[in-house]
Structure formats: structure tokens, C-alpha cells
Amino acid sequence: MADTRYALLDPLRFPLVARFYKTHYPAGKPKKDEIIWTAENNSGLFGSVRFRQFPDFQLLTGMLIAPEQRGKKQGEAFLNAVQTQIQTKTCYCLAYRYLENLYKEAGFEVIEVSNLPEELRGRYQSYCNSGKDLIPMGHNSMSQL
């Protein structure tokens, strides 16, 4: 991972991230109003983490690692690299249950659905009702945890 570079996305490079999602996770569509971080190595873009901003908090909307890079601790390294972003203001994520330990290692803790901001509770319920096995998490830098 020595050749890995993590950076806040330059808006001019947004099409690159959009193409990355279309290739590896068509259901996830990056949005220009999100804060997006990228992970690249000498072979090019292999990861993206997106943060949706709300007035009083942010939502880590998802992390995508290219399939050929999975299982190599890239997710852990990426979440570590974006800690400054995570800690800029209260941060939540709605994580797939099988990724709970990954997010816990990055400082997130499972929280009660009732502790999610109102704007996220409905989204969480909708995702779960559509069959996604998610857990609500908040970063432990939050004062209410």
C-alpha cells in the first residue's frame, strides 16, 4: 500500500468517480454535492468514500473498493486516511451488518435507531424494508455516544 494516495476529489475528476461506480456498483451513484475522497495507486483509482453533508452532521454514504483490491486491508487503510473528514462534524453511517467490525475499527459504534437524526431514521427504515441488512452507527468522536 506504499504507493497508495488518498485525496479529496478534485471536482474536475468527478466523471472518473462516476465511471468507477458505474463499473463496480451501478446502484451507487456519486453526487456532485457530496464530499468524495479517492484512493489511487499506480494502477489508478481503486476506491472511493462519499460523505453527504447535512446542517448538523454528515453521513458516510458508502465506501467502494474495486473487487481486485478487496481482502487486502484497503478498506481499513482508507477509513484511517479519512479520519480528518470523519471528525469534522458528527458522522453517521448505515453499514451493512457484515462490515460492522470494519467500521468499528475505524471508530464507529453501533447505535440505537432512535439515536439517528430524524433525517436518517426514515432512510434507514426504507433501506431495511427493501431487504438491506444494515446497522446504524455513529463515530465515537460524537459527544452523545
From TrEMBL:
Residues 1-129 form the N-acetyltransferase domain. It comes from the Bacteria. One of its GO terms (molecular function) is acyltransferase activity, transferring groups other than amino-acyl groups. Coiled coil: none annotated. This is N-acetyltransferase domain-containing protein. It comes from Grimontia celer. The lineage of its organism: Bacteria, Pseudomonadati, Pseudomonadota, Gammaproteobacteria, Vibrionales.
